[in-house]
Amino acid sequence: MSVPAGGVGEVASGDAHLRETCLATEVVEQGQFLQWRRDRVQLPDGRQAVREYVVHPGAVMIVAALPDGRLVMERQFRYPVGRTMIEFPAGKLDPGEGGLACAQRELLEETGYRARRWAQAGVMHPVIGYATEFIEVWLADDLIAGERHLDDGEFLDVFAASEGELSQWFRDGLLTDAKTVVGMMWLQQWRSGAWAPAWVSVADAASGTPASAPE
Amino acid sequence: MSVPAGGVGEVASGDAHLRETCLATEVVEQGQFLQWRRDRVQLPDGRQAVREYVVHPGAVMIVAALPDGRLVMERQFRYPVGRTMIEFPAGKLDPGEGGLACAQRELLEETGYRARRWAQAGVMHPVIGYATEFIEVWLADDLIAGERHLDDGEFLDVFAASEGELSQWFRDGLLTDAKTVVGMMWLQQWRSGAWAPAWVSVADAASGTPASAPE
């Protein structure tokens, strides 16, 4: 049996026997939003291999809770998978932009909501095989409704859904976006009491009208 | 307030106001494993835009439960994110290969385990912004231990972890792989009784020795 002794000890142990190191790197193609890169790497046994991957600026996702407990969701056509997806609001970091600033900007632009309280849940890596992308997960609470301002050429619906609805859609295969399922897991950790968000109050969100849930 | 009426009705409604259609497609670069493509698309308002994305063959992920309830996990260095990740076993579909056959092959090659019972949980989309990738999630139960046979140049640790350990690592930011969190959500749906897997018995797994959990 080749399975080594495991558990936390194994996870916490060193990873020198697994690491790959960069020998050479090359930009294969500079796209409009993303760069494709090809590196030659040294494997743990000293041999060489090629790693091709997308360089991504990083992103944020927002789990925004309405006063009635429902979440602010989006419905957006995603061309690479050829279908309309149910998602939490998300967007790429602008150069030099912090995660919270990006989360505030994206939530406002795409949904029209501001939030008075924010808390970072964690970071996820959606594409560890071929992209550098990370997504910061932010919780937003105490919402204030306003007007959205979509980017030019951006088309998406905004709607509200309960945690139970999201779980049902997940089980039924209607909700298949991985980042959104990660957001659901954070939501569950929060609401079950297994994890407590470290809320930060955001002063400049205090203007505007109190949030009411969409129908 | 620009938020439209929401809930299931909204989700179930048509998506003609969101859809993009292909006008032209071009292979930008054919990589060793993946292809990068650039399409010109027509937006819902009739204007045009460019979509750049990776063409991926699809993959499977295996949530394999040991007799003591712990899960078969891997620890693998992922070059694009520059770190060692905790993951469920997974791998790309070979040309023409079915999901179950791929799941059986990958679990055996990477961990040495065969399973007598399999059930498909669902499908996820990890990279809806810039890749066609889908990942079928398979549950594997009634395991039989054996020898693993890693691909040439593949380096990974195999270990066992409980559902509680995985949740703790998720909250602590040690488990950030999005596909693995989706697998945890399916595991939770299964073990909570919210969802019942449709198990299929696999005859040719009946040879070998009964599984014992790693330390």
3D architecture notes:
The structure is a homodimer of 215-residue chains. In chain A, the strands form 3 sheets. In chain A, strands 4, 7, 8, 9, 11 and 12 form a 6-stranded mixed sheet that branches. The first copy, chain A, has a 3-stranded antiparallel sheet with strand order 1-2-3, with no helix packed on it. A 3-stranded antiparallel sheet of chain A has the order 6-5-10. The first copy, chain A, is globular. In chain A, helix 3 crosses helix 4. Chain A folds into 2 domains: 40 residues, no CATH class; 142 residues, Nucleoside Triphosphate Pyrophosphohydrolase (Alpha-Beta Complex), CATH 3.90.79.10. Chain A starts with 7 loop residues before the first helix and ends in a 5-residue tail after the last strand. The N terminus of chain A is likely disordered. Chain A is 19% helix and 37% strand. The first copy, chain A, is an alpha+beta fold. At the A-B interface, helix 1, strand 2, strand 3, strand 5 and strand 6 of A face helix 1, strand 2, strand 3, strand 5 and strand 6 of B.
List the helices and strands and how they pair.
Two copies of one chain form a homodimer.
Chain A: H1 8-12, E1 21-30, E2 35-42, E3 48-55, E4 59-64, E5 71-78, E6 83-87, E7 90-92, H2 99-111, E8 114-124, E9 135-145, E10 157-161, H3 163-171, H4 178-191, E11 200-201, E12 209-210
Parallel strand pairs in A: 4-9
Antiparallel strand pairs in A: 1-2, 2-3, 4-7, 5-6, 5-10, 8-9, 8-11, 9-12
Helix pairs in contact in A: 3-4
